[in-house]
Amino acid sequence: MELGLWQVWEGGWIAAILRGAAVTIALGVASMAFGIVIGVACGLIKWARLFPLTLAVDFYTSIVRGVPELLIIYLLFFSSVEFVAQVAAAFGYEGLAGNGYAFVIAVIAIAAISGAYSTEVVRGALAAIPGGHVEAARALGIPGGRIFRRIIAPQMLRIAVPGMNNVWQTTIKDTALVSVVGLQELMRAASVGAGSTRSPFVFYFIAAVVYLAITLVSQGGFDWIERLLRPRTRK
Amino acid sequence: MDLDFIRLAVPTLAKGLGLTALLTLASVAVGFNLGLALAVMRLSKNRLVSGFAKGYSTVFRGTPLLVQLFLFYYGLGQLAFVRDNPVLWWIVGDGVHCAVMALALNTAAYTSEILRGGLMSIPGGLVEAAQACGMSRLLCFRRITFPLAIRQALPAYGNELVLVVKGTSLASTITVLEITGHAKRLMSQTFAILEVFAIAGVLYLLINLVLITLVRLLEARLTRYLPR
């Protein structure tokens, strides 16, 4: 058969692809989590205009959002690979370019990218909170920390969810780029399968379907969260 | 960072600049028109037509560009009828052509969503007035709907252009030597990773700066009736 559907089944490639998909999801979730931490921190700095820090944040977001993701991934992987090999050799592990190390660097790379986009989302959400709310809270004598916890954070969360949905969709798609430096995620599993069975069409098609399933399911999840956070008005 | 290295690296990376610009221009030229067609289809009353446009946009926005690129380049190249058809093989068989096709189809999906937002923002009264004046549908689209929609959609489209420029870097994975392709080569040859990244990054930022400035100028021109 030309397409090689049978080989996919026979060679146990389905399991490899599903394992890859699990790595992709883990990578996406971990990067998104770190990205949100970066985003909230940098978004707050940008919103509050903490002078020297805003310059650093502006530099970071405009570099990461203006330069291709692939180039950033190359930078982080190639510059770290030698360093890590040296450290590993010092501890007596030769050739530790295994999956664990690749995963950590991948999380750092994707989180840095995801964090830059999250920063803009958080900043936008903070800017969308009416200034009167904060002023009113201050007039009531509520301390700063509680204003943030009770007034700013809940509103920011609700406004930021649609933007974060977009960031998540981009993040999960960006994880595919890590395959070019060899992490065994979904795209890499498909590439390996495509190479050894010589039927790339089926493998990349399956990969596309799995990615589509991931994005569609998470889209549904975000819709649910959005409904959950919608303000309930009294009838 | 020594001067000799810069003298070596800058011309090498600048060689890729032309190809990156070419990939961007070609895929935007194709992708914009395709996206416009899809946006109009999406608003069609025919369920089949609008359903197709919706499905297209879901599939192309829901999968990574890298997968689309590999599926076209490696996957379609495997099929016999594609190889036997000279036109299809002209597109798929060459890295640059294939990258342009993948980028164009990808950006068309995003463009269609942006333009759809612009088209939906037009008040119905304007279209009704145009119809009452006896304008044909095509004339109404050309004179009323499209100019207003594009004005509305331009800021978002500027962001999409930047994404296309960044997307062209993926062409380096299918043997096209544009900026990122040259950068990767230089990184593995010279091990001056940060320096190469910095030079390549500056080139990309320059392209994006030029594009964003052009979009801003166009936007200022289209909204010149507004008080400043």
Descriptive notes:
Chain A is mostly helical and about 240 residues long. Chain A has one domain (about 5-230): MetI-like (MetI-like fold, Orthogonal Bundle), CATH 1.10.3720. Helix content of chain A is about 80%, strand content about 0%. Chain A is built from nine helices and no strands. In chain A, helix 2 packs parallel to helix 5 (about 100-125) and helix 6 (about 130-140) packs antiparallel against helix 7 (about 145-175). Chain B has a single domain, classed as MetI-like fold (Orthogonal Bundle), CATH 1.10.3720.10. Chain B contains ten helices and no strands. Chain B has helices spanning about 5-40, 45-60, 65-80, 80-85, 85-90, 95-120, 125-130, 135-165, 180-190, 195-220. In chain B, helix 9 runs antiparallel to helix 10 (about 195-220). The interface of A and B includes residues 62, 82, 190, 191 and 216 of A.
Whole-number count of domains of chain B: 1
Assembly context of the chains: heterodimer
Q: How much helicity do the residues of chain B have? A: over 70%
Class inferred from helices and paired strands of chain B: mainly alpha
The fourth-level CATH homologous superfamily of chain A is: MetI-like
Number of helices of chain B: 10
Compute the separation of the termini of chain A in Å: 64 Å
The CATH class of chain B: Mainly Alpha
Low-confidence stretches of chain A: none
Instruction: State the name of the first-level CATH class of chain A.
Output: Mainly Alpha
The residue ranges of chain B in which pLDDT falls below 50 over 5 or more consecutive positions are none
> How far from one another are the termini of chain B?
46 Å
What is the count of β-strands of chain A?
0
CATH topology of chain B: MetI-like fold
Keywords (chain B): Cell inner membrane, Cell membrane, Membrane, Transmembrane, Transmembrane helix, Transport
Family (chain B): Belongs to the binding-protein-dependent transport system permease family. HisMQ subfamily.
GO molecular function (chain B): transmembrane transporter activity
Subcellular location (chain B): Cell inner membrane; Cell membrane
